[in-house]
Specification:
Structural class: alpha/beta
Largest sheet: 5 strands, mixed
CATH class of the largest domain: Alpha Beta
Strand order of the largest sheet: 3-2-1-4-5
Number of helices: 19
Number of strands: 5
Helix content: 55-70%
CATH topology of the largest domain: Nucleotidyltransferase, domain 5
Length: 448
């Protein structure tokens, strides 16, 4: 009885009465919503439409409607004026076919996506040429060590900076650390087992034999633990050394400084005398110039900002930006710690500037946000695309990719530092006054 009373009172006094809730969506809208927002398969959409009582619910009809919508959309972002951005490019594989993707790292907007016949340099050249024709120009490229991607870019944009992706360069070291950890735990278990067997030995000969086995297991265990600890300590020093700003002083890191620190850590790792580890460290030495070229970005940005900001204030802003950047990569206590540090250093910087302090800091943050040293952002975008592809059951088409691109670019982020904004809004600086669904059908109508 009480629950019924509460329900009646809620209905009487709520601002949104039940009778003014809009009716059900038209067929095309619900198909698109289920496919993109709900990531529902065609057969699942058909079943939902049948359950809701829509007159047309066949999978063939649904597929054709989606293809029709996709044909009205471009696979390359259209901009009104020339747009200069840093490219992040990657390849996704679906059913053995490559999908070429390029995004803007600041907004995470997909600039172009295409289902390609191959991933040769010539195909990537056409990919970048299409971007150039649409007034989207590159000021640099970040990618893994795929030769075809770099060749394709250089064929269209001459003498651009290519930044080797730190995620891929050091990922094998992280995997190796996990392997060493497993081996260390296995060695600890073996030592414990040998000790248990030794403690049960009775005869003198058996005691000596079991003792030798235990001592060998103990020596192996100590070595495995030492190797794991040395690699773990090295990586704990390596990743902060790759930051754009020194986490203790806020000074920007220079290319040669980072190069020296990385090479010293590689020498320390070689002391473990593990062939697999030495192979990885040698690979990093071979690519050290490509790994460190990205620090030229921060050098140029800081030199420009130094024209209007004192060096000390720039260091404080660098510290604030670094902690802000880290706060989006952690959760819980670590996130709160970085947010508190960010706010502290921002307050320090604000106290040393005049009435234009906030705009100057915003400008610095915006400039620093454009710095790229890892393709983790495009991996994030790829992870958002993948669930849509998994529901295709082999029916991956360019029309579907066009829809996915439009949805991603116009859909509002629900969390993170881009919360409440769509990638297209961040890229163009123009706020959307409609939902992504309204924008979609408005675009379809103009192209039909």
């Amino acid at each position: 009885m009480i629950s019924v009373t509460v329900l009646c009172l809620h209905e009487l006094f709520t601002a949104h009465r039940l009778e003014i809730v809009p009716g059900r969506l038209d067929l095309d809208s619900i198909i698109v919503l289920l496919r993109l927002e709900g990531r529902v398969s065609l057969s699942g959409i058909s079943e939902i439409l049948r359950t809701l009582g829509y007159p047309h619910d066949s999978t063939g009809m649904i597929s054709e409607r989606l293809k029709t919508f996709g044909r009205c959309l471009s696979n390359t972002l259209n901009v009104d004026t020339e747009c200069l951005v840093f490219f992040l490019s990657d390849e996704i594989f679906a059913l053995g076919r490559p999908i070429l993707v390029t995004i803007d790292p600041v907004s995470t907007a997909i600039l172009r996506i295409e289902l390609a016949p191959n991933r040769n340099a010539e195909t990537w050249e056409l990919h970048y040429q299409a971007l150039k024709d649409n007034l989207i120009l590159a000021k640099g490229l970040g990618s893994d060590r795929a030769i075809s991607i770099n060749k394709g870019l250089q064929a269209v944009f001459d003498n651009l900076v290519w930044c080797s992706d730190h995620f891929h360069e050091f990922n094998d070291l992280v995997k190796l650390l996990a392997t060493l950890e497993k081996q260390a735990y296995a060695a600890i278990a073996e030592e414990d087992d040998r000790l248990r067997v030794f403690s049960k030995a009775k005869s003198e000969d058996n005691l000596q034999k079991r003792q030798a086995q235990y001592e060998a297991a103990q020596a192996d265990c100590n070595q495995r633990i030492a190797q794991y600890q040395q690699v773990s300590d090295s990586l704990d020093l390596l990743f902060p050394a790759l930051y754009f700003f020194d986490p203790t002083t806020g000074r920007h890191r220079k290319e040669q400084q980072v190069k020296n620190e990385v090479l010293i850590l590689m020498d320390w790792l070689d002391e473990c005398e593990l062939p697999k580890l030495q192979q990885e460290t040698q690979s990093i030495r071979n690519h050290i110039d490509d790994i460190c070229v990205c620090y030229r970005q921060v050098e140029e940005i800081v030199q420009e900002l130094a024209k209007t900001l004192p060096e000390e204030v720039l260091n404080f802003i660098g510290l604030a930006w670094q902690h802000d950047h880290q706060s989006h990569q952690h959760k819980g206590k670590r996130k709160k710690y970085h947010m508190a540090e960010r706010d502290f250093w921002l307050d320090v910087a604000l106290s040393l500037l005049d009435e234009n302090a906030e705009s100057q800091i915003d400008q610095a943050f915006e400039s620093f946000d454009g710095m790229v040293r890892s393709s983790s952002l495009i991996e994030m975008v790829n992870s958002q695309i993948r669930p849509h592809l998994n529901n295709c059951k082999g029916l991956i088409t360019q029309e579907l990719l066009n829809l996915i691109m439009f949805y991603h670019n116009h859909h509002l982020y629900k969390s993170g530092k881009r919360k409440g904004k769509a990638p297209i809004e961040i890229l163009t600086g123009t706020k959307l006054d409609k939902t992504w669904l309204d924008c979609l059908f408005e675009t379809i109508q103009t192209q039909a």
